[in-house]
Amino acid sequence: MFSKATEYALRATIYVAQKGTVENKIVIGEISKAIDAPQSFTAKILQALRKDNKIIRSVSGPNGGFFMTEKAKKLPVRTILKAMGEDEVLDKCVLGLDKCSETQPCPMHSKYKIIKEQLIALFETKTIQQLADDIKNGDVFINNKDKQKLKLK
């Protein structure tokens, strides 16, 4: 559904929301390992997420790294999609038609419209903090290479 960059952005944001604080900043190597992404690609993604300090923040230097503010953790997940330039994916026609509407529907329009509305509602109401909290209980993961080692406690 989303590009690999956006998938990594979602995972990275959830990880930083759970682990990163002003007092405990997370270094890029730890983030890339936790989300199973190349470090250079993760750095590029984190740069997009920290633009204007809206989602993720960073500090340079020996005690530097990435973290999130409490305010940022309360942002809806759709904010990540916007930062990655993929917000419009939720609004597009499932078959990729330019003009798909009630008056000019694609063959999937009527059935997908319901699913699309549910997806949009999910991404607009679920917060980054809620996703991070879901991981704490150990039932969900952001990296399934080795479930036992990657539970984020």
Strand order within the widest beta sheet: 1-2
Shape: elongated
CATH topology: Arc Repressor Mutant, subunit A
Question: Rounded to an integer, what's the Rg over CA atoms?
Answer: 17 Å
The percent range for strand residues is under 5%
CATH class: Mainly Alpha
Topology as a string of helices (H) and strands (E): HHHEEHHHHH
Fraction in helix: 40-55%
Total DSSP E strands: 2
Q: Which CATH architecture would you pick?
A: Orthogonal Bundle
The main β sheet shows up as:
2 strands, antiparallel
Give the CA-CA distance, first to last residue: 28 Å
Helix-strand makeup class: mainly alpha
Instruction: List segments where confidence is low: pLDDT < 50 over at least 5 consecutive residues.
Output: 147-153
Number of domains: 1
What would CATH call the homologous superfamily?
Winged helix-like DNA-binding domain superfamily/Winged helix DNA-binding domain
Report the total helices: 8
Residue-averaged pLDDT: 89
Question: Can you walk me through this structure?
Answer:
With 153 residues, the chain is mostly helical. It has a single domain (4-146), classed as Winged helix-like DNA-binding domain superfamily/Winged helix DNA-binding domain (Arc Repressor Mutant, subunit A). The protein has eight helices and two strands; from the N terminus they run αααββααααα. It has helices at residues 4-19, 28-35, 39-49, 70-73, 78-83, 109-125, 128-136, 147-150, and strands at residues 57-59, 65-67. The protein has a two-stranded antiparallel ribbon with strand order 1-2. A hairpin with a 5-residue loop joins β1 and β2. α1 (4-19) crosses α2 (28-35), α1 (4-19) packs across α3 and α2 (28-35) crosses α3 (39-49). It is elongated, with a radius of gyration of 17 Å.
